[in-house]
Predict the structure of Methionine aminopeptidase.
Amino acid sequence: MSVHIKSAEELEKMRVSGRLAAEVLRMIAPYVKPGVTTGELDRICHDYIVNEQGAYPSPLNYHGFPKSVCTTVNHQVCHGIPGDRELRDGDILNIDITVNKDGWHGDTSKMFYVGEPSKKARKASEVAHESMVRGIEQVRPGATLGDIGHAIQTYAESQHCSVVREYCGHGIGQGFHEEPQVMHYGRPGEGLTLEPGMVFTIEPMINAGKRHVKLLKDGWTVVTKDHSPSAQWEHTLVVTEDGYEVLTQLPGDPL
Ligand code: MF3
Ligand code: CO
Ligand code: CO
C-alpha cells in the first residue's frame, strides 16, 4: 500500500481546494428549499465552481458520473444523481462537493433539512455528524485507521444506528480517490499507522435502520435495503505533527 505524504507546498494547494469545496456548500445552502430540484442545485454548484472559482467539479465524468455534485435524499445512502426530483418539506439531503483546483482535490459533504425532518431522519443526520467528529478527533501521528473506524462505529451503534460498510473514506490529493481506504468501523490499534502529511477524508454513512444497502439500476444511487433514512457528513483532513487540520472547514464554522 502506498500512501502519499504531502509536502508543505502540496498542502498549501490542498488548503485552497478544501476551502473552495467548503465555500460551495456555504453558497448552496440558501437554495435548499421546498420546490427546488436536485438538478437545479447541481447546475448552481457547477456554475459557481467553474465560473466563480475557476475550478472543475471532480465528480463530472468521473467513472461516467453524469453530474457535478452528488445529491442524496432520505433513504438514499450516497452518490445520488441530481435530476428533476423536487425537494419536499421533510426531506433530508446530502450534498457532496468535490472540486479540483489546479490539479488538487478537496472533498466535503453535509446534510440539509428541507423543513422539518422526521425524528428518525434527524437522528441519522445527528448521529452521522457526531460519528464523523469522533472519527476526526482520533487523528494524530501514531494513531491507526482502526482507531478512527472504532470511534465511529462504537458511537453510531451506541445510538442504535448502523454503519454502512461498502463505502469508505479515502486518501485524496492529485487523485480523487487515493490510498488508504478509511473504514468507518474497526478495532483500536489495527490498520495503517498515521503519519504527518497524510491527507484523507472521513465520511461515515449512518443508517437509522439496518446497515445493508443496494445499488439502484442507474448504476450510482445507493439506498438502504430497509428504506430507513441514511445520512452522511464528510471532511478532508491532514495529519499534523500533533493532531489534525481539517482542510474543508471554513474559519469560524463548526465541523
Ligand atoms: N464525493 C464522493 C466521495 O466522497 C465521491 C463521489 S464519486 C461520484 O468520495 F462519481 F459519484 F461523483
Ligand atoms: Co465526497
Ligand atoms: Co470522499
Helices lie at 8-28, 38-52, 119-136, 145-158. The pocket of MF3 (ligand 1) is lined by residues 59, 62-63, 65, 70, 79, 96, 98, 107, 203, 220, 234 (CB under 6 Å). The chain has one domain: 8-243. The chain has a mean pLDDT of 98.
